[in-house]
Amino acid sequence: MQIASIQMVSSTRVDTNLQRADALLEEAARRGAQLAVLPEYFCLMGAAEGDKVRLREQPGNGPIQHFLQDAARRHGLWLAGGSMPLACPDPGRVLNTTLVFNPQGQQVARYDKMHLFAFERGAERYAEADSIAPGSEPVAFDCDGLRVGLSICYDLRFPELYRQLSAPVGAVRHCDVFLVPSAFTHTTGEKHWEVLLRARAIENLAYVAASAQGGRHENGRRTWGHSMIVDPWGEVLAMQAEGEGVVVAAIDPARIAEVRTSLPALGHRLIG
């Protein structure tokens, strides 16, 4: 399977972001991708935290969800829709959610981001819990013979999530691929992004496809970018540093089997 990690520099205008996402998905399909992953906040990098709350949609209804459904069908893709704001019981917050659609435009998975980013250094401050409610359940789905685990951005720092997705001790089926749509800050991404992605791949002997925001945004935020696809041995197969783009690589089940046979670490785990 060919997989595409899509990098964007999303603006404060939803319509513009959806148009750019559609053009990049078209490019991914043209380059042979069967599964495409948009970045976190692909639909909006708001001027204020409250912008995402005003944009929230009810599950199953709304222009962003309709766009994802239609784009998956038109381009013939399995599509992981980065993240978008869905309504939650708290009227002042949203769920930061990845929705996955199959090539027929049917929703096949939903993951609500579990770990909420917080960072403060000088004038740079982020506190996602102010506007986002956490999800509670890991989610994986089956995609043309591959088992695909979902995560979003800050989740990357929590290896126990990927262990849960990789299945407990003694399980027959492990995830083959992890998706990591993100909007890593330039400050943290410069030091931590690649090493964390490669670590998650190596620990779980699985592919990791990370789609990122990558550049200077209208709201003043600077994101790290460096969307990449990493193989189960920790090798970076393809990467784009900054700016819009489409990163494509092959997911090879034979490569997964090879590394898991030569290094059977998943079967050596002592803790569930």
Explain what this protein looks like in three dimensions.
By secondary structure, the chain is α/β, with parallel strands linked by helices. The chain is 26% helix and 26% strand. It contains 6 helices and 16 strands. The strands form 3 sheets. Strands 1, 2, 3, 4, 5, 6, 9 and 16 form an 8-stranded mixed β-sheet that branches. The protein starts with a strand and ends in a 10-residue tail after the last helix. The mean pLDDT is 95.
Note poorly predicted spans: none
Number of helices: 6
Q: Major β-sheet, in short?
A: 8 strands, mixed
Strand runs, count:
16
Assembly type of the shown chains?
Answer: single chain
Order of SSEs: EHEHHEEEEEEEEEHEHEEEEH
The share of residues in helices is 25-40%
What structural category arises from helix and sheet content? alpha/beta
The pLDDT mean sits at: 95
Taking all Cα atoms into account, the compactness measure Rg is 17 Å
Question: Mind sketching the topology for me?
Answer:
Elements: E1 2-7, H1 14-30, E2 35-37, H2 50-54, H3 63-75, E3 78-80, E4 84-87, E5 94-101, E6 107-112, E7 118-121, E8 124-127, E9 132-133, E10 140-143, E11 146-150, H4 159-165, E12 177-179, H5 186-204, E13 207-210, E14 227-230, E15 236-240, E16 245-250, H6 253-262
